[in-house]
Amino acid sequence: MPIDEASALAAEPRTGEITWTRKDVQLYHLGIGAGIPATDPDELRYTLESRLHVLPSFATVAGAGSPGVIGGLSMPGVDVDLARVLHGGQSLTIHRPLPANGRATATSRIAAVYDKGKAAVLVMRTDVADADGPLWTNDAQIFVRGEGGWGGDRGPSARLDPPTGEPTKVVERPTREDQALLYRLSGDWNPLHADPEFAELAGFERPILHGLCTYGMTLKAVVDTLLGGDVTRVRSYATRFAGVVYPGETLRIRMWRQGEQGAQGAQGVVRVTVGAVERGDAPVLADTIVELS
């Protein structure tokens, strides 16, 4: 069996040092569409080193590594065809604001293996800490088509009841035709996002945008629109990748703000849905929650 559940869960965690610089942060921000308009003060906080703020979703690429998906496929007990793999979901917990320059230790392991019948789901967990303590925890849900059916645990349902009522805010964010080519320079070299022949082999009409690029664009929209650009307010961010985005399409991002501002500082939740405008609002991100501190 390509996925050996017992071996994958029992494998020793992999630990390594990661480093990043302001240049890496700026490249990531450009890859998720920051810098338009180039002289806008709200955009300069993502692009100009003298006033740089780090969007928390940078954690998914810090150290120029893949977002847990490629790493998960090289773990003991996992031997699958990359063309059958999709990034099913992502959750991120921020323990402290991310520094613009950093050196940290990343510890990764397969935290769970689920049998979904016609597919398997691997949860690749990465804990990152520096000399001052924990920085963030990343969970990447790796969806492997055709690898289920061994009678294992189906795992929890990721589906949430949809938000109700009118959104607090709706914004549209265009993607560029070359967006995937720029975003992949932050470390995710999967040819699905650049090579038309590989994309066709995987069942797509052309290369698709990285799910984590959409993930970053969406968080930036929430921070800019509802949080006044304060990246330090994000405590956690989770989503399910419900569909693909083709570079050049427009994202329609709907946000529902929940929770009240208390004496000890604002706390609450933002529910989000994302659709592709040109395909009739076809779902892209679902079950998306940003928790605020």
Describe the fold and architecture:
The protein has helices at residues 5-10, 22-31, 41-47, 69-73, 179-183, 196-201, 211-226; strands at 14-20, 85-94, 102-115, 119-130, 133-145, 169-174, 234-241, 250-258, 261-262, 265-266, 268-276, 282-292. By secondary structure, it is of the alpha+beta class. A 10-stranded antiparallel sheet has the order 1-3-4-5-2-7-12-11-8-6. Strands 9-10 form a two-stranded antiparallel ribbon. The radius of gyration is 18 Å and the shape is globular. Residues 261-266 have low confidence and may be disordered.
List descriptors.
ten-stranded antiparallel beta sheet; globular; alpha+beta; 293 residues; two-stranded antiparallel sheet; single chain
Structural class: alpha+beta
Distance between the termini: 44 Å
Overall average pLDDT: 90
Secondary structure: helix percent: 10-25%
How much of the sequence is in beta strands? Answer: 35-45%
Question: What strand order characterises the main sheet?
Answer: 1-3-4-5-2-7-12-11-8-6
**Main sheet attributes: strand count, strand direction, barrel closure:** 10 strands, antiparallel
- Order of SSEs, N→C? HEHHHEEEEEHHHEEEEEE
Given as residue ranges, the uncertain stretches (5+ residues, pLDDT < 50) are 261-266
Annotation field: number of helices: 7
Overall strand count: 12
Rg, Cα atoms, Å: 18 Å
Shape: globular
